[in-house]
Amino acid sequence: MSVRDYTLSLGDDAMIAAQRLGEWIAAAPQIEEDVAVGNIALDLLGQARSLLGYAGSLEDPARTEDDLAYWRDEREFRNVHLVERSWSLTSEGPRDFGVLVARLLVLSTYLCELYERLRTSTDETLAGVAAKAVKEVDYHRDHATMWVLRLGDGTDESHRRMQAALEAEWPYVAELFDDAYVDPRLVEQGVGVLPSTLGDAFDRRIADVLAEATLELPEVGPAVGGGRRGVHTEQMGYLLAEMQHLARSHPGVTW
Amino acid sequence: MTRAAELSGAHVAGATSPHDKSAAWRVAAAVLDPEVPVLTIEDLGILRDVEEGEDGVVVTITPTYSGCPAMEAIRADILTAFRDAGRADVRVEFTLSPAWTTDWMSQEGKRKLLDYGIVPPRPRGNGPVALTLSLRCPQCGSPDTRELSRFGSTACKSLWVCNACAEPFDHFKAI
After folding, report:
1. Tens digits of per-residue pLDDT, A192-248?
2. Fewer beta carbons within 10 angstroms: which end of chain A, N or C?
3. A3-216+225-249 carries CATH number 1.10.760.10
4. For residues A216 and A152, what is the distance between their CA atoms, to the nearest angstrom?
5. ipTM score assigned to the predicted complex
6. Is the pLDDT of residue A90 over 80?
7. Could you tell me the pTM of the whole model?
8. Nearest to residue A158, comparing CAs of A169, A168, A147, A167?
9. Which pLDDT score, from 0 to 100, does residue B53 have?
10. Which residues have CB under 8 Å from B47's CB, separation 6+?
11. Which domains are assigned to chain B?
């Protein structure tokens, strides 16, 4: 694995998360939440642009962030399953707000720990992106935490649905901390972070939030995974079709 | 997009000190932020460097947030400002390091923001971000205000409302 591959996996996580989050705009329970999700998605998209731009520049010949976003096929994407899953996987209709909150909590907590460590990466570009991004994802985590507290420690109905959403998302948490696809040499060189070493801090933070929200840590086994080697869930193709449709239908289009 | 190439060569640009403000710096510094058009990019602290070399002028700016959609507009505005000043040999580069902080906003900029009806960010320092205490309403001055939404009309703002005069207002978040 090269610096390019490592950067690509970080960039794909951010980009696919942003694309999925975009589905909430004009569909969230409050207009303020439409704006919040839009802002969070925009931050992630910005991080993705920096990361994919950098990954592309390391290729020979160099490729742009747009080349990587629009002209790769499903098997070439390296994002985890957590970020690509659709919002309709519980019995709560086409978009389960609880799932959004649960996923935001997981993703932002993980990204906070990851970017905090990457700030001191020996790769200057990765360190620069991380130092900027960590401030953004910290704010996202704050937002997700407030919702988890409000819903978990809210009414019986909100508590039940928040717990169900956590149960639905939890099988996809383990993949974030899987070391199998990070080259130990990159870790030795101080470029990348061994994902499993983020686990303790992640677990502590999540446990604190869930305890305060009167929620239980789900006891479910991990899903199969495979995103880091380009094996994705059924929903990924639909997401890419929407994201890539314009660029592929009108190659070279600008506006 | 050319950002990829520029990012790979990202360098740490120090803000030019007031002593060496060149004519070129002043041209770039007068460009307004398209989203908060009372602030110049110098007031905002995103203008990091203006360097005159043999190949012309290189202006370095940094985004407020990673996804700030105004960066392309600001780049175009800088090029236009230089063209109006009779210079075409100008290049705009983006840098991410060091990461922008609201502490780089000038006092003048903070005053202009308040006059515009946006409560400026508090000093952040190097420590953890303090709890946001109540803000004073920029319309009527009452301290009796509350946060309506942690995210506002742009990435850099949150939305507040005044309990006394019932007017909503923006707050520039400290990061």
Report:
1. 999 999 999 999 999 999 999 999 999 999 999 999 999 999 999 999 999 999 999
2. C
3. no
4. 10
5. 0.78
6. no
7. 0.89
8. A147
9. 87
10. B15, B25, B28, B29, B31, B40, B41, B59, B60, B61
11. 3-100 (3.30.300.130), 104-172 (no CATH)
Select from A112, A135, A254 the residue whose CB has the most chain B CBs within 10 Å, as the one to mutate to test that interface.
Answer: A135
pLDDT of amino acid B131: 57
pLDDT at B156: 87
What single DSSP character describes residue A63? -
Give per-residue pLDDT as tens, A132-149: 999 999 999 999 999 999
Kindly report whether the peptide bond that precedes residue B143 is cis, defined as omega within 30 degrees of 0. Answer: no
The reported pLDDT for the residue numbered B11 is 37
Asked if B126 reaches chain A (Cβ–Cβ under 8 Å), the answer is no
Output helix, strand, coil percentages for chain A, rounded to the nearest 5.
70, 0, 30
Q: Of A32, A63, A132, which is closest to B96 when you measure between CB atoms?
A: A132
- CB A201 within 8 Å of CB A252: no
Which residues of chain B are within 8 Å of residue A128 when distances are taken between CB atoms? 10, 95-97, 99
Cβ contact A42–B153 (<8 Å): no
Taking an 8 Å cut-off on Cβ atoms, the answer to whether B153 and A35 are in contact is yes
- Phi, psi at residue A199, to the nearest 5°? -65, -45
CA distances from A103 to A132, A134, A165 (A): 22, 18, 9
How far apart (Å, rounded) are the C-alpha atoms in residues A102 and A162? 8
